[in-house]
Amino acid sequence: MIHYIDARGKQCPIPVVETKKVLAHGAPGDIIETAVDNEIAVQNLEKMAVQKKLAYEHRTEGERHYIVRIFAPGKEGETQETSSGPDTGRENVCRCNPVETGKTVVVLSSDKMGEGDSALGAVLMKGFIYALTSQEVLPDTILLYNNGAKLSTEGSDSLEDLKLLESQGVEILTCGTCLNYYGLTEKLAVGAVTNMYDICAKMMNAEKVVKP
Amino acid sequence: MDNRKDEIVFCRGGGCTAKLGPGMLGKVLEQIPRMKDSNLLIGYDSSDDGAVYKLREDLAVVQTLDFFPPMVEDPYIFGQIAAANALSDIYAMGGDVKTALNIVCFPENWDLNILGKIMLGGSEKVKEAGGILAGGHSIADQEVKYGLSVLGTIHPDKVFANNQCREGDRLILTKPLGTGIICTANRIGEASEEALDQAVRSMTTLNKYASETIRKYRVHGCTDVTGFGLLGHLNEMLGDVFSAVLYSDRVPYIKEAFAYAGEFFLTGAAQRNRNHMEGQVEFQNVPFEMEEILFDPQTSGGLLVSLAPEDGEACLEDIKKLGLPCGMIGTVVKKREKKIYVKGD
C-alpha cells in the first residue's frame, strides 16, 4: 500500500515526524510518499531512512515540489529494489541519485497485445505477462499506462503474474493520471503509482525498452 | 481571539535556527565591496561576531546586532533569550556592554501585552549585563521578531578574535549543546518540562560571567556558538591554518537532546550546517544522535574558547563554578586532511 503525505509548506521537522508516524503504523512492504517543498526536507527525510535502515529514493516533481519515497521493511526475506539500498553508508545521505542506467523496462501501454481481434489481443497480453514471469532475467521495471493501467487493477487476469514479478524485485509502476481517468485509482492491486516525469525518466535511462 | 492559536503562530521554530545557511551567506557577502579603515580592528572579513572600532589607543567600541523569531512560547522568556543572545556577541569579543537598542517586528493587530512581556524580558537582561536600554526601532510585520543592537567597550589590545587559535590550544565550551533540538521537540509537543527548563536556563544565562572568567587566562580565540552549531563555529575559528580533535564524551549537552535527535526532531538549519561542513568532519565511532547535537544550531549558546594548554584545567574549573554544564572538549592541532576529527567512546 502506498501512503501519501503532503508536507509541503510545513517546516522541518514536521515532514519527518508525520512520515515517521505513518511508518510506525504501516504494514510490511508499504511505501510512504512524502511531498515536500525544499531540498533540506528531502535530506532530513533520507537521513531518517538511513538511520532506520530503510530503502528510499526521491524525485523532483517541479519547482518547490519533491517526492521522497520510503519503503517500509518488507516481509521476511524480501528485498526492495531501489536506487539506494538500506546498507549504503551515511555518506549517501545527500547523494541519492535517482538516475538509473543499464535497466530493462517493459512498457505495457494497452491491455491487449498487437493489432487485430480484441479478444485475441487480451489473450496474447495475458500470455506475454505470464511468459515474463518465467524469463531467466527479469525486467527491472514494468510501466503500465493508458489501457495498460487496467492490467494492474482489480479484475485483471494478470494480477497474479504481476504480483509474482513484484515479489521477485520487479518494480511495477502504473500511471496515476490513467488510473484517475479510468476511475481505477482505488482499484490498483499491485505495485505503485507513478507520474509522467518518472515514466519518461525510466524510459530515457533504460538500456532496453520492451514494448509488446 | 483564541489565545492558544496565537501561541502556535508566535513560536514557529525560531531562534538561531532561523539563520540563513552559512554557504548562502558567504556567496552574498563576497559580492559586497569591502571598505577599508585602519581603525576597524575587526570587521566582517574574519566572520566575527561583531565589529570592533578603535577610538583611542586604549579604547575601542564593539558593535553588534542580533534578532530572531521566537523559539519558545512564553513571550517574557523569549525576550530574555533574544537579549541574552544579542548581548553575547559583545562578550564573545571580550567587551563590556554599555548601551542597547531594541529591534522589534510585531503584528499590528496583536495584543500589545505580548510585546510588553517580550520587551520586559529583554530589558531585564540588558540591566543584568550592566548596560542601559536607550531606545529602539519597531515595525509592523506578519511575524514577531525581537533582538538588540548592542554597543560595548573594550581595550583594543584585549579583543578576543575568533580566528587566532594556536597549535596545542585547549578548547572549552561554556554551555551545553542541544537547545535547538529541545526547542524543536517542544514546538511539536514532545519535549519534557525538565528538558525545556534546562534549555531555557542555558539560553537565558548571560555569557557575561564566562567572558569575565576567561579574561584571567591566555585566551587566543573566542566565539559564541549560535546558528551554525558547534562544528560550524569551530570551523570558522580554525580558519585555514588548523584542525581540531574533539572528544565527543567531553562535549556538554542537555541529556534529552540525545533521545530527541534519535526521534528525528531535527531542524532544516541543522541539515544546512551538516551540508556546509560536508567532507570536512571525520566522525570516529560517534553515534548519529551525537552528530546531530554537534550540528545543532544553538540559540544564545555558550562561548567556545581556545586557550593556552597550561591554562585549560584551571579555566575549566572556574567556568564550572558558574553552574552550567561545560567541558574541555578538544585540542587545536596542525592542519590535517580534515578540519575536525570527532572521536567517540
Automatic annotation (TrEMBL), chain A:
<dbReference type="InterPro" id="IPR027396">
    <property type="entry name" value="DsrEFH-like"/>
</dbReference>
<dbReference type="InterPro" id="IPR019870">
    <property type="entry name" value="Se_metab_YedF"/>
</dbReference>
<feature type="domain" description="UPF0033">
    <location>
        <begin position="5"/>
        <end position="29"/>
    </location>
</feature>
<dbReference type="InterPro" id="IPR001455">
    <property type="entry name" value="TusA-like"/>
</dbReference>
<protein>
    <submittedName>
        <fullName>Sulfurtransferase-like selenium metabolism protein YedF</fullName>
    </submittedName>
</protein>
<dbReference type="InterPro" id="IPR036868">
    <property type="entry name" value="TusA-like_sf"/>
</dbReference>
<dbReference type="Pfam" id="PF01206">
    <property type="entry name" value="TusA"/>
</dbReference>
From TrEMBL, chain B:
<keyword id="KW-0711">Selenium</keyword>
<keyword id="KW-0808">Transferase</keyword>
<dbReference type="InterPro" id="IPR023061">
    <property type="entry name" value="SelD_I"/>
</dbReference>
<feature type="active site">
    <location>
        <position position="16"/>
    </location>
</feature>
<feature type="binding site" description="in other chain">
    <location>
        <position position="89"/>
    </location>
    <ligand>
        <name>ATP</name>
    </ligand>
</feature>
<feature type="binding site" description="in other chain">
    <location>
        <begin position="46"/>
        <end position="48"/>
    </location>
    <ligand>
        <name>ATP</name>
    </ligand>
</feature>
<protein>
    <recommendedName>
        <fullName>Selenide, water dikinase</fullName>
        <ecNumber>2.7.9.3</ecNumber>
    </recommendedName>
</protein>
<comment type="subunit">
    <text>Homodimer.</text>
</comment>
<dbReference type="GO" id="GO:0016260">
    <property type="term" value="P:selenocysteine biosynthetic process"/>
</dbReference>
<dbReference type="Pfam" id="PF00586">
    <property type="entry name" value="AIRS"/>
</dbReference>
<feature type="domain" description="PurM-like C-terminal">
    <location>
        <begin position="166"/>
        <end position="343"/>
    </location>
</feature>
<keyword id="KW-0460">Magnesium</keyword>
<dbReference type="Pfam" id="PF02769">
    <property type="entry name" value="AIRS_C"/>
</dbReference>
<dbReference type="InterPro" id="IPR016188">
    <property type="entry name" value="PurM-like_N"/>
</dbReference>
<dbReference type="GO" id="GO:0005737">
    <property type="term" value="C:cytoplasm"/>
</dbReference>
<feature type="binding site" description="in other chain">
    <location>
        <position position="19"/>
    </location>
    <ligand>
        <name>ATP</name>
    </ligand>
</feature>
<comment type="similarity">
    <text>Belongs to the selenophosphate synthase 1 family. Class I subfamily.</text>
</comment>
<dbReference type="GO" id="GO:0005524">
    <property type="term" value="F:ATP binding"/>
</dbReference>
<feature type="binding site">
    <location>
        <position position="49"/>
    </location>
    <ligand>
        <name>Mg(2+)</name>
    </ligand>
</feature>
<dbReference type="InterPro" id="IPR004536">
    <property type="entry name" value="SPS/SelD"/>
</dbReference>
<feature type="binding site">
    <location>
        <position position="89"/>
    </location>
    <ligand>
        <name>Mg(2+)</name>
    </ligand>
</feature>
<dbReference type="GO" id="GO:0004756">
    <property type="term" value="F:selenide, water dikinase activity"/>
</dbReference>
